[in-house]
Task: structure prediction
Amino acid sequence: MSLAGNLKTISFADILQLLSAGKKTGVLQITDANRSKEVAFRDGVIIFASSLNNSEDMLGALLLKRGRLSKDDLERAIVLHKQSGRPLGETLVDMKVFTQDEVAECLKMQIEEIVYNLFSWPAGEFDFKEDEAPRNAPFLLELPTMSVIMEGTRRIDEWVEIQKVMPKDDVLLRMANLPGGESGEVAFTIDEFRLLPLINGERTTPQVIDLSPIGEFPSYRALYKLIVGGYVEGAGLATNVSVTGMENEEEVVLSIIFQLYNNCFWKIRQIVDEVFGKGSIPSSKFINYASSPDYASIATYFPGIEFGSDGSPAFDRFYAAVVKIPAPIRLHSLMSSLETMLTDQLELVFRFVGSRQYRNAVSRVKKEISEPLAARRELVKRYQIDENFYTALHRAERIVKSAIG
Result:
Protein backbone atom coordinates (compact mmCIF):
# COMPACT_ATOMS: atom_id res chain seq x y z
CA MET A 1 0.00 0.00 0.00
CA SER A 2 1.43 3.36 -1.05
CA LEU A 3 0.38 6.15 1.29
CA ALA A 4 2.40 9.36 1.30
CA GLY A 5 1.72 13.07 1.23
CA ASN A 6 1.33 16.06 3.51
CA LEU A 7 -1.02 16.69 6.43
CA LYS A 8 -2.06 19.89 4.67
CA THR A 9 -4.13 17.78 2.28
CA ILE A 10 -5.21 14.84 4.45
CA SER A 11 -5.65 14.94 8.19
CA PHE A 12 -3.95 12.61 10.63
CA ALA A 13 -7.38 11.26 11.63
CA ASP A 14 -8.12 10.35 7.99
CA ILE A 15 -4.77 8.54 7.69
CA LEU A 16 -5.51 6.52 10.81
CA GLN A 17 -8.94 5.62 9.45
CA LEU A 18 -7.44 4.35 6.19
CA LEU A 19 -4.86 2.21 7.98
CA SER A 20 -7.44 0.86 10.40
CA ALA A 21 -9.99 0.01 7.71
CA GLY A 22 -7.29 -1.70 5.64
CA LYS A 23 -5.96 -3.61 8.68
CA LYS A 24 -2.46 -2.52 7.68
CA THR A 25 0.82 -3.50 9.30
CA GLY A 26 3.81 -1.19 9.07
CA VAL A 27 5.25 2.12 10.22
CA LEU A 28 3.90 5.61 9.52
CA GLN A 29 6.60 8.30 9.65
CA ILE A 30 5.60 11.98 9.90
CA THR A 31 8.10 14.85 9.81
CA ASP A 32 8.09 18.63 9.74
CA ALA A 33 10.91 21.15 9.88
CA ASN A 34 11.86 20.36 13.49
CA ARG A 35 10.27 17.05 14.47
CA SER A 36 10.01 13.47 13.32
CA LYS A 37 7.62 10.87 14.73
CA GLU A 38 6.78 7.27 13.94
CA VAL A 39 3.59 5.33 14.62
CA ALA A 40 3.65 1.54 14.20
CA PHE A 41 0.62 -0.59 13.30
CA ARG A 42 -0.24 -4.28 13.35
CA ASP A 43 -3.43 -5.30 11.54
CA GLY A 44 -4.64 -1.69 11.71
CA VAL A 45 -4.05 -1.35 15.46
CA ILE A 46 -1.50 1.09 16.91
CA ILE A 47 1.20 -0.84 18.76
CA PHE A 48 4.01 1.71 19.26
CA ALA A 49 5.01 5.35 18.67
CA SER A 50 8.21 7.29 19.09
CA SER A 51 9.70 10.75 18.67
CA LEU A 52 12.82 9.93 16.72
CA ASN A 53 14.83 12.86 18.03
CA ASN A 54 14.30 12.45 21.75
CA SER A 55 12.32 9.33 22.69
CA GLU A 56 14.70 8.21 25.45
CA ASP A 57 14.87 11.75 26.85
CA MET A 58 11.05 11.83 27.01
CA LEU A 59 10.91 8.56 28.93
CA GLY A 60 13.62 9.77 31.31
CA ALA A 61 11.72 13.01 31.93
CA LEU A 62 8.49 11.14 32.65
CA LEU A 63 10.21 8.80 35.09
CA LEU A 64 11.99 11.72 36.75
CA LYS A 65 8.63 13.35 37.44
CA ARG A 66 7.55 10.30 39.41
CA GLY A 67 9.65 11.68 42.27
CA ARG A 68 11.59 8.50 43.01
CA LEU A 69 14.36 9.07 40.50
CA SER A 70 17.15 11.58 41.02
CA LYS A 71 18.97 13.28 38.17
CA ASP A 72 22.14 11.43 39.22
CA ASP A 73 20.34 8.08 38.94
CA LEU A 74 18.92 9.03 35.55
CA GLU A 75 22.34 10.09 34.26
CA ARG A 76 23.86 6.83 35.54
CA ALA A 77 21.06 4.84 33.90
CA ILE A 78 21.60 6.65 30.57
CA VAL A 79 25.33 5.79 30.69
CA LEU A 80 24.56 2.12 31.40
CA HIS A 81 21.87 2.10 28.71
CA LYS A 82 24.35 3.38 26.11
CA GLN A 83 27.06 0.96 27.21
CA SER A 84 24.85 -2.12 27.23
CA GLY A 85 22.56 -1.23 24.36
CA ARG A 86 19.56 -2.25 26.48
CA PRO A 87 16.50 0.07 26.53
CA LEU A 88 16.52 2.76 29.18
CA GLY A 89 13.40 1.36 30.85
CA GLU A 90 14.95 -2.08 31.22
CA THR A 91 18.13 -0.53 32.61
CA LEU A 92 16.15 1.28 35.32
CA VAL A 93 14.38 -1.98 36.21
CA ASP A 94 17.77 -3.71 36.46
CA MET A 95 18.88 -0.91 38.80
CA LYS A 96 15.75 -1.63 40.91
CA VAL A 97 14.74 2.02 40.67
CA PHE A 98 11.38 1.17 39.07
CA THR A 99 9.30 -1.94 38.63
CA GLN A 100 8.47 -3.31 35.20
CA ASP A 101 4.82 -2.21 35.62
CA GLU A 102 5.82 1.37 36.46
CA VAL A 103 8.06 1.60 33.39
CA ALA A 104 5.31 0.07 31.23
CA GLU A 105 2.81 2.67 32.50
CA CYS A 106 5.17 5.53 31.63
CA LEU A 107 5.92 4.08 28.21
CA LYS A 108 2.20 3.77 27.51
CA MET A 109 1.72 7.41 28.52
CA GLN A 110 4.62 8.44 26.30
CA ILE A 111 3.20 6.56 23.28
CA GLU A 112 -0.28 8.05 23.78
CA GLU A 113 1.11 11.60 24.08
CA ILE A 114 3.07 11.18 20.82
CA VAL A 115 0.03 9.90 18.94
CA TYR A 116 -2.44 12.48 20.27
CA ASN A 117 0.02 15.30 19.64
CA LEU A 118 -0.07 14.48 15.93
CA PHE A 119 -3.75 15.47 15.74
CA SER A 120 -2.68 19.10 16.23
CA TRP A 121 -0.10 19.14 13.41
CA PRO A 122 -1.35 21.44 10.62
CA ALA A 123 1.33 20.19 8.20
CA GLY A 124 4.04 17.58 7.87
CA GLU A 125 5.25 15.04 5.30
CA PHE A 126 4.01 11.50 5.96
CA ASP A 127 5.01 8.14 4.49
CA PHE A 128 3.61 4.71 5.39
CA LYS A 129 6.06 1.83 4.99
CA GLU A 130 4.07 -1.38 4.83
CA ASP A 131 5.28 -4.48 6.72
CA GLU A 132 8.14 -2.53 8.35
CA ALA A 133 8.73 -3.16 12.06
CA PRO A 134 9.18 -0.31 14.60
CA ARG A 135 12.76 0.50 15.58
CA ASN A 136 13.99 0.25 19.17
CA ALA A 137 10.59 -0.66 20.56
CA PRO A 138 11.06 -1.94 24.11
CA PHE A 139 7.34 -2.07 24.73
CA LEU A 140 4.39 -2.86 22.45
CA LEU A 141 0.78 -2.20 23.32
CA GLU A 142 -2.54 -2.18 21.52
CA LEU A 143 -4.39 1.11 21.06
CA PRO A 144 -7.64 0.52 19.11
CA THR A 145 -7.24 2.96 16.23
CA MET A 146 -10.88 4.04 15.96
CA SER A 147 -10.93 4.82 19.69
CA VAL A 148 -7.78 6.90 19.21
CA ILE A 149 -9.47 8.84 16.39
CA MET A 150 -12.49 9.60 18.58
CA GLU A 151 -10.30 10.65 21.52
CA GLY A 152 -7.99 12.75 19.34
CA THR A 153 -10.92 14.58 17.76
CA ARG A 154 -12.49 15.13 21.17
CA ARG A 155 -9.22 16.54 22.49
CA ILE A 156 -9.13 19.10 19.67
CA ASP A 157 -12.62 20.30 20.60
CA GLU A 158 -11.77 20.30 24.30
CA TRP A 159 -8.49 22.13 23.72
CA VAL A 160 -10.39 25.07 22.20
CA GLU A 161 -12.45 25.40 25.39
CA ILE A 162 -9.36 25.02 27.58
CA GLN A 163 -7.59 27.86 25.78
CA LYS A 164 -10.46 30.23 26.57
CA VAL A 165 -9.81 29.84 30.31
CA MET A 166 -6.04 29.47 30.59
CA PRO A 167 -4.32 32.59 32.00
CA LYS A 168 -1.45 34.19 30.12
CA ASP A 169 1.83 32.31 30.24
CA ASP A 170 3.47 34.89 32.53
CA VAL A 171 0.77 34.69 35.24
CA LEU A 172 1.67 32.87 38.47
CA LEU A 173 -0.85 30.34 39.78
CA ARG A 174 -1.95 29.78 43.37
CA MET A 175 -4.70 27.97 45.26
CA ALA A 176 -7.73 30.17 45.87
CA ASN A 177 -8.80 31.00 49.41
CA LEU A 178 -11.28 28.61 51.05
CA PRO A 179 -11.73 26.24 48.11
CA GLY A 180 -14.93 24.23 48.28
CA GLY A 181 -16.99 26.89 50.04
CA GLU A 182 -17.80 27.07 53.74
CA SER A 183 -17.60 23.31 54.30
CA GLY A 184 -14.06 23.19 52.96
CA GLU A 185 -14.86 19.78 51.42
CA VAL A 186 -13.50 19.34 47.93
CA ALA A 187 -13.59 16.30 45.63
CA PHE A 188 -10.66 16.30 43.22
CA THR A 189 -9.96 13.81 40.46
CA ILE A 190 -6.67 11.90 40.62
CA ASP A 191 -5.19 14.08 37.86
CA GLU A 192 -6.24 17.29 39.63
CA PHE A 193 -4.83 16.00 42.92
CA ARG A 194 -1.47 15.31 41.27
CA LEU A 195 -1.26 18.92 40.08
CA LEU A 196 -2.05 20.52 43.43
CA PRO A 197 1.48 20.29 44.96
CA LEU A 198 2.84 22.13 41.90
CA ILE A 199 0.52 25.14 42.31
CA ASN A 200 2.20 27.27 44.98
CA GLY A 201 2.03 30.86 43.75
CA GLU A 202 5.56 30.63 42.33
CA ARG A 203 4.93 28.83 39.03
CA THR A 204 3.23 29.80 35.78
CA THR A 205 1.01 27.53 33.67
CA PRO A 206 3.89 26.35 31.40
CA GLN A 207 6.02 25.59 34.48
CA VAL A 208 3.23 23.58 36.11
CA ILE A 209 2.61 21.62 32.91
CA ASP A 210 6.33 20.96 32.46
CA LEU A 211 6.62 19.50 35.97
CA SER A 212 3.39 17.52 35.85
CA PRO A 213 3.72 13.71 35.98
CA ILE A 214 0.52 13.01 34.02
CA GLY A 215 1.25 14.19 30.48
CA GLU A 216 0.65 17.49 28.71
CA PHE A 217 -3.02 17.31 27.70
CA PRO A 218 -4.30 15.62 30.89
CA SER A 219 -2.42 18.32 32.83
CA TYR A 220 -4.04 21.15 30.88
CA ARG A 221 -7.46 19.51 31.30
CA ALA A 222 -6.99 19.10 35.05
CA LEU A 223 -5.75 22.67 35.44
CA TYR A 224 -8.69 23.93 33.37
CA LYS A 225 -11.15 22.20 35.73
CA LEU A 226 -9.37 23.57 38.79
CA ILE A 227 -9.59 27.11 37.40
CA VAL A 228 -13.23 26.79 36.32
CA GLY A 229 -14.08 25.29 39.72
CA GLY A 230 -12.58 28.31 41.46
CA TYR A 231 -9.82 26.33 43.16
CA VAL A 232 -6.93 27.98 41.30
CA GLU A 233 -6.44 31.65 40.52
CA GLY A 234 -3.84 34.09 39.24
CA ALA A 235 -1.25 35.46 41.67
CA GLY A 236 0.30 38.27 39.66
CA LEU A 237 2.93 38.32 36.94
CA ALA A 238 6.05 36.18 37.07
CA THR A 239 8.18 39.08 35.88
CA ASN A 240 7.72 42.80 35.45
CA VAL A 241 6.01 43.35 32.15
CA SER A 242 7.12 46.46 30.30
CA VAL A 243 4.36 48.29 28.51
CA THR A 244 5.60 50.35 25.63
CA GLY A 245 2.27 51.88 24.71
CA MET A 246 3.36 51.73 21.08
CA GLU A 247 1.25 48.72 20.07
CA ASN A 248 -1.73 49.42 17.84
CA GLU A 249 -4.33 47.29 19.61
CA GLU A 250 -6.88 47.52 16.81
CA GLU A 251 -4.34 46.32 14.27
CA VAL A 252 -3.44 43.36 16.50
CA VAL A 253 -7.13 42.44 16.93
CA LEU A 254 -7.75 42.67 13.19
CA SER A 255 -4.68 40.54 12.47
CA ILE A 256 -6.03 37.82 14.80
CA ILE A 257 -9.43 37.98 13.10
CA PHE A 258 -7.84 37.86 9.65
CA GLN A 259 -5.65 34.85 10.43
CA LEU A 260 -8.50 33.00 12.16
CA TYR A 261 -11.00 33.30 9.32
CA ASN A 262 -8.51 33.01 6.48
CA ASN A 263 -7.27 29.71 7.96
CA CYS A 264 -10.86 28.48 8.00
CA PHE A 265 -11.70 29.63 4.46
CA TRP A 266 -8.47 28.12 3.14
CA LYS A 267 -9.19 24.76 4.78
CA ILE A 268 -12.78 24.68 3.45
CA ARG A 269 -11.53 25.47 -0.04
CA GLN A 270 -8.98 22.64 0.18
CA ILE A 271 -11.75 20.17 1.03
CA VAL A 272 -13.78 21.19 -2.02
CA ASP A 273 -10.68 21.00 -4.24
CA GLU A 274 -9.91 17.52 -2.88
CA VAL A 275 -13.39 16.30 -3.84
CA PHE A 276 -13.74 17.91 -7.27
CA GLY A 277 -10.17 18.72 -8.25
CA LYS A 278 -8.44 22.10 -8.06
CA GLY A 279 -9.65 24.45 -10.78
CA SER A 280 -12.55 22.19 -11.80
CA ILE A 281 -15.91 23.63 -12.75
CA PRO A 282 -17.64 22.52 -9.49
CA SER A 283 -14.76 23.93 -7.46
CA SER A 284 -14.90 27.23 -9.38
CA LYS A 285 -18.64 27.33 -8.88
CA PHE A 286 -18.20 26.87 -5.14
CA ILE A 287 -15.70 29.74 -4.96
CA ASN A 288 -18.09 32.00 -6.87
CA TYR A 289 -20.88 31.14 -4.45
CA ALA A 290 -18.60 31.58 -1.47
CA SER A 291 -17.55 35.08 -2.53
CA SER A 292 -21.03 36.30 -3.43
CA PRO A 293 -21.80 40.03 -3.84
CA ASP A 294 -23.27 40.14 -0.32
CA TYR A 295 -19.75 40.39 1.09
CA ALA A 296 -17.52 40.54 -1.98
CA SER A 297 -15.81 43.70 -0.73
CA ILE A 298 -14.40 41.73 2.19
CA ALA A 299 -14.02 38.33 0.54
CA THR A 300 -11.52 39.61 -2.03
CA TYR A 301 -8.95 40.21 0.72
CA PHE A 302 -8.93 36.60 1.91
CA PRO A 303 -6.55 34.36 -0.06
CA GLY A 304 -8.42 31.45 1.51
CA ILE A 305 -11.43 32.38 -0.62
CA GLU A 306 -9.85 34.02 -3.64
CA PHE A 307 -9.89 31.52 -6.52
CA GLY A 308 -6.49 30.91 -8.10
CA SER A 309 -4.51 32.22 -5.12
CA ASP A 310 -2.01 30.21 -3.10
CA GLY A 311 -3.40 31.23 0.28
CA SER A 312 -0.55 33.61 1.07
CA PRO A 313 -1.42 36.32 3.62
CA ALA A 314 -2.69 39.65 2.36
CA PHE A 315 -3.38 41.32 5.69
CA ASP A 316 -2.13 44.74 4.64
CA ARG A 317 -4.83 45.05 1.96
CA PHE A 318 -7.46 43.68 4.32
CA TYR A 319 -6.50 46.12 7.08
CA ALA A 320 -6.52 49.11 4.73
CA ALA A 321 -10.04 48.22 3.60
CA VAL A 322 -11.45 47.55 7.07
CA VAL A 323 -10.24 50.79 8.65
CA LYS A 324 -12.33 52.67 6.07
CA ILE A 325 -15.44 51.43 7.88
CA PRO A 326 -16.61 54.08 10.41
CA ALA A 327 -14.95 53.36 13.77
CA PRO A 328 -18.17 53.11 15.88
CA ILE A 329 -19.50 50.23 13.76
CA ARG A 330 -16.23 48.84 12.38
CA LEU A 331 -15.75 45.71 14.48
CA HIS A 332 -19.44 44.82 14.66
CA SER A 333 -19.84 45.20 10.90
CA LEU A 334 -16.75 43.14 10.16
CA MET A 335 -17.57 40.30 12.57
CA SER A 336 -21.15 40.12 11.36
CA SER A 337 -19.97 39.77 7.75
CA LEU A 338 -17.37 37.15 8.63
CA GLU A 339 -19.86 35.10 10.65
CA THR A 340 -22.18 35.09 7.64
CA MET A 341 -19.36 34.15 5.28
CA LEU A 342 -18.25 31.21 7.41
CA THR A 343 -21.80 30.00 7.99
CA ASP A 344 -22.58 30.20 4.27
CA GLN A 345 -19.39 28.38 3.29
CA LEU A 346 -20.07 25.50 5.65
CA GLU A 347 -23.65 25.30 4.38
CA LEU A 348 -22.34 25.22 0.81
CA VAL A 349 -19.98 22.36 1.68
CA PHE A 350 -23.02 20.41 2.89
CA ARG A 351 -24.96 21.22 -0.29
CA PHE A 352 -22.06 20.53 -2.66
CA VAL A 353 -20.39 17.45 -1.16
CA GLY A 354 -22.67 16.08 1.55
CA SER A 355 -22.83 15.63 5.31
CA ARG A 356 -19.62 13.59 5.67
CA GLN A 357 -17.45 16.31 4.13
CA TYR A 358 -19.40 18.94 6.06
CA ARG A 359 -18.38 17.21 9.31
CA ASN A 360 -14.84 16.98 7.97
CA ALA A 361 -14.88 20.72 7.25
CA VAL A 362 -16.11 21.58 10.75
CA SER A 363 -13.44 19.34 12.29
CA ARG A 364 -10.65 20.89 10.19
CA VAL A 365 -11.88 24.42 10.87
CA LYS A 366 -11.81 23.80 14.63
CA LYS A 367 -8.28 22.46 14.29
CA GLU A 368 -7.15 25.56 12.36
CA ILE A 369 -8.29 28.09 14.97
CA SER A 370 -6.12 26.97 17.89
CA GLU A 371 -3.07 29.04 17.00
CA PRO A 372 -4.87 32.36 16.23
CA LEU A 373 -7.02 32.14 19.36
CA ALA A 374 -4.03 31.33 21.55
CA ALA A 375 -1.87 34.16 20.18
CA ARG A 376 -3.33 36.94 22.36
CA ARG A 377 -5.86 35.37 24.69
CA GLU A 378 -6.60 38.56 26.60
CA LEU A 379 -7.62 40.38 23.40
CA VAL A 380 -9.55 37.37 22.10
CA LYS A 381 -11.64 37.37 25.28
CA ARG A 382 -12.08 41.13 25.48
CA TYR A 383 -13.32 41.44 21.90
CA GLN A 384 -15.28 38.16 22.03
CA ILE A 385 -13.58 36.89 18.89
CA ASP A 386 -13.99 33.27 19.91
CA GLU A 387 -17.66 33.73 20.79
CA ASN A 388 -18.40 35.26 17.39
CA PHE A 389 -16.62 32.40 15.69
CA TYR A 390 -18.63 29.75 17.53
CA THR A 391 -21.82 31.61 16.75
CA ALA A 392 -21.07 30.98 13.07
CA LEU A 393 -20.48 27.26 13.68
CA HIS A 394 -23.73 26.94 15.65
CA ARG A 395 -25.69 28.74 12.94
CA ALA A 396 -24.29 26.42 10.29
CA GLU A 397 -25.17 23.40 12.44
CA ARG A 398 -28.78 24.57 12.82
CA ILE A 399 -29.10 25.11 9.07
CA VAL A 400 -27.67 21.69 8.24
CA LYS A 401 -29.85 19.92 10.82
CA SER A 402 -32.87 21.70 9.37
CA ALA A 403 -31.92 20.58 5.84
CA ILE A 404 -31.42 16.98 6.96
CA GLY A 405 -34.85 17.12 8.50
Q: What stands out?
A: The chain has three domains: 3-148, 166-237, 249-404. Residues 59 and 107 are 7 Å apart (CA to CA). Confidence is low (pLDDT under 50) at residues 240-246.
